[in-house]
Amino acid sequence: MSAAHPPIAPTAPTAPTAPTDLPAPLRAAKPFFWPHPQRRPAAQVLADSPVGRADVEAAVARWRRFGPLLVRLFPHELGPDGRIDSPLLRQGDDHGRALWVKADHQLPITACIKARGGVYEVLCHAEQLALDAGLLAPGGDTAALADASARALFARHRVLVGSTGNLGYSVGVMARALGLGVEVHMSHDAQAWKKDRLRAVGATVVEHAGDYAQAVAGARALAAADPVAYFIDDEDSLLLFLGYAAAAWDLAPQLAAQGLVPTAARPLRVYLPCGVGGAPGGVAFGLKCLWGDAVQVVFVEPVAAPCFLLRLATGDDAASVYDIGLSNHTVADGLAVPRASARVAALAGPLVDAVVTVSDADLLRMLRFQHEAHGLQLEPSAAAGFVAHEMLAGPWAETVAAWCPTPVIPLVWTTGGQGLPTEVFQALLAAGLALGQAAQA
């Protein structure tokens, strides 16, 4: 059965904005900086929210309970505590200041941020199946979920998910490690190598003629008709959201170890690549739970697929980038989503401080620069935060200073890339080089 979550009413704005009132650069697919006019103080949003810090702390504790199981399943990828986390890296920008990088493109097991949500929800589902079958006592040792009796149970169940690739892979790897069947629904034009690696771990890939949203809808409909199917809903899952939100508790000790304390006088500015909104929304929610308005959340989207900005600007959950003449075609395939998650917009939308849109050309240029200058292997999606930081610190600095006159601690949160096949990454590097040479000509 698919997960059932209570509906959450949208919080802002209450009346949809006509598409003709949207910022001109949005409709023209031009990069721009958009301070969120409906952003509200974190304390107020969290006080009114049906989900709060206690829910995130419960997810953090649940993650820790899964540690023994994860070590048993992935002994070569994880340390003895079974934590799925990434390093905090330091770079220097062109102005001689530190730029911090939360390197989720290096996350163990899946090499992408989607492990924080996808792996977590699969684990939660498996735990519930075992509890219901009497194979696990409440609070019992989760390592038992790798026993033969649990695997025999899981073999009678399957997980379905719609994905552009990385969520599907995170779900697929975890589900197959436990013995669950898994079916990943993707658009026909999704990256071929992402489909191939899913098949390699034993997942069934179902291709749809339409885009990401249609793939999700197809998976949802099939799961609803199958009593042994569980649907992981990238558009409407609270478990995914909380799995991502727990990441803030991983970042906190890393910042403290560097002597970094976010304050109102020097806030932490976090750049989060955004597609449907689940991962950045969850991370943003967790960060605001810990530090409130001492964190500035900046979502970053492709100019051709700024679905979350469109949702924030219009207040319309049904708003699609197609409605305003945008193509939803971008080299950042993980962010190629036409419509934002209504659930995430309700929970995290009022906490978003600003949105930046970026071009494909800048993503490829930055991807190459990060590899040459810092040795990072990123997907185009994961380069988005670096482009946004570059723009806010450079060409748009005067506008940004008027919006935020205080110094900040800048942090880019990467999302994927370490798992790219060599030939795919080399092609991206070549594209970035060609663009750079064309710009100099």
Primary descriptors:
441 residues; alpha/beta; seven-stranded mixed sheet; four-stranded parallel sheet; 18 helices; disordered N terminus
Task: Report what the structure shows.
This protein is an alpha/beta fold and 441 residues long. The protein contains 18 helices and eleven strands. The protein has helices at 24-27, 42-48, 53-65, 67-73, 115-132, 148-154, 166-178, 192-200, 212-224, 238-245, 247-257, 278-291, 307-314, 342-348, 360-374, 384-393, 397-403, 422-440, and strands at 32-35, 88-92, 98-102, 158-162, 181-187, 204-208, 229-232, 268-273, 295-302, 354-358, 409-413. A seven-stranded mixed sheet has the order 1-10-9-8-11-3-2, sandwiched between helices. A four-stranded parallel sheet has the order 6-5-4-7, with helices on both faces. α12 (278-291) packs parallel to α14 (342-348). The relative contact order is 0.16. The model is unreliable at 1-15 (pLDDT under 50).
Distance between the termini: 57 Å
Rg, Å, rounded: 21 Å
Low confidence ranges = 1-15
Order of helices and strands: HEHHHEEHHEHEHEHEHHEHEHHEHHHEH
Report the helical percentage.
40-55%
Mean pLDDT: 92
**Number of DSSP strand runs:** 11
SS strand fraction = 5-15%
Please describe the biggest sheet, giving its number of strands, its sense, and whether it closes into a barrel.
Answer: 7 strands, mixed
Broad structural category: alpha/beta
Q: Which word captures the global form?
A: globular
Largest sheet strand order: 1-10-9-8-11-3-2
List the total number of helices.
18
